Amino acid sequence: MRTALEPVVTPVAMGRIDRRAIDSGIVGYRLMLMAGAAIAASVLRHYGDAAGVDVLCGPGNNGGDGYVAAKMLQTSGMCAACYSLGDPVKLAGDAACARDDWGDEILSLEDYVPTDGRVVIDALFGAGLQRDVEGVAVRVIEAVNAFDIPVIAADLPSGLSGESGRVRGTALRASRTVTFAAPKPGHFLLPGRDLCGVLEIADIGIPSRCIEAETEGLWLNRPPLWRDALPRLAANSHKYTRGHLGVFSGGYRQTGAARLAAIAGLRVGAGLVTVLSPASANAANAAHLTTIMLRTIDGGADLDGLLEDMRFNSFVLGPGFGVGEKARDFAERILGAGRALVLDADGITSFAGYHDQLAEAAAKQDAILFITPHQGEFARLFPQIASNASRSKVEQARSAARETEAIVVYKGADTVVADPSGRAAICDNAPPWLATAGSGDTLAGLLGGLAAQGMPGFEAACAAAWLHGEAANRAGARLIAEDLANNLPAFSEFQEY
């Protein structure tokens, strides 16, 4: 059976999902019982031989999940103790029912001391935390982090923002995190992903229709999101039907980045790839190219002549190209001709301070613009967006996409893809060894190659980012950028994913 899309929901959306489920007739306390049962099951499955469990309960429904888990673990024969942040008598609603069903002593969080051999259930704050952690919770979190004991977080490690994955003052480092119904952005955006440990998504009985009704156009970037849009070869396909990618080279000392991008574009399926080189770099490029063609492009007139050939339908501009007016001029000519353009590296930096000029060029009819910045490049091109630390990486990427009418691939270990309509996807498959020279050039080439084959923009960007990470995983920890193209999976692998 083919895997379905995997939506990622914000804490606000999750609140609406809960209300929809309850309005449909599901008793709210039943959802809490199911959530607590999922936490207890994770403890028994992974730490069943522990000496006991200490449940740190907060003042809201997250604390209620903790009391339910404690009761179930106690019933199963495990020694359990509950510690409350604040007066447990003040709990209301479903959380108060869970406290009453616990029916045993509730200790003050101020008295909690980590104990070797026991497991901690973190039920202090859930994904909806809106302020910095303070007071006794800070001391307890820091004490647990300093002690080498397993921590299972209910919904999200306390101190993390479920919206952005950022730390609110301080945060627990969990061994495992059990979340409910659907994951939150904070589970995947850094540093949240590192603090969540192993993520478990528990089905607590919320109907899928309730989740689907409140999705916000945000998904985990997995093949089901884009596999049906992958290029398909017909029996009569030939190289000219598979698109022609042009990759611009820098001067004779800056040619390697363009070749990495060109090789990736060819390997991902573009029918033809040409390195577009200044005359000074022709000899250096020619010495390294075989299946990739070479053409001299020194100035705007040369480029205009090339653009008369409609078979050139996709371009990569930026890797090793150089920063300045020439890059801006080339980008505007390509977009003005209605072609797809992947603007990367030096191409992005060339538009720092020329944001409106780029947006105007991208608005040309039929033009498709992809922008692939890392954090520093993003800050240079979108300083106002980047300076707003209260916005998540997802929202920053969405804003940048809307402002420039571009598909933005905001790179990093938690790459976010966003398009002007607001659709977005978070990538979670990039291994740390992908942080090596030339990997970004390869990503630009993958994207350019998929665009050359006519793949829709958002899907092409998501596919390129996922394939990039998967190739790195297959290459292994001794990866260098030259390995990536040769470790790409075949498209046929995704048909039943």
UniProtKB/TrEMBL annotation:
Q: Where does AMP bind?
A: K411, G412, A413, D414, T415, G440
At the top level, the lineage of the source is Bacteria
Write out the similarity annotation.
In the C-terminal section; belongs to the NnrD/CARKD family.
Function as written in the Swiss-Prot or TrEMBL entry? Bifunctional enzyme that catalyzes the epimerization of the S- and R-forms of NAD(P)HX and the dehydration of the S-form of NAD(P)HX at the expense of ADP, which is converted to AMP. This allows the repair of both epimers of NAD(P)HX, a damaged form of NAD(P)H that is a result of enzymatic or heat-dependent hydration.
Q: How does it assemble?
A: Homotetramer.
Q: Which HAMAP family match?
A: NADHX_dehydratase, NADHX_epimerase
The name of this protein is Bifunctional NAD(P)H-hydrate repair enzyme
Lineage, please?
A: Bacteria, Pseudomonadati, Pseudomonadota, Alphaproteobacteria, Hyphomicrobiales
Q: Which gene encodes it?
A: nnrD
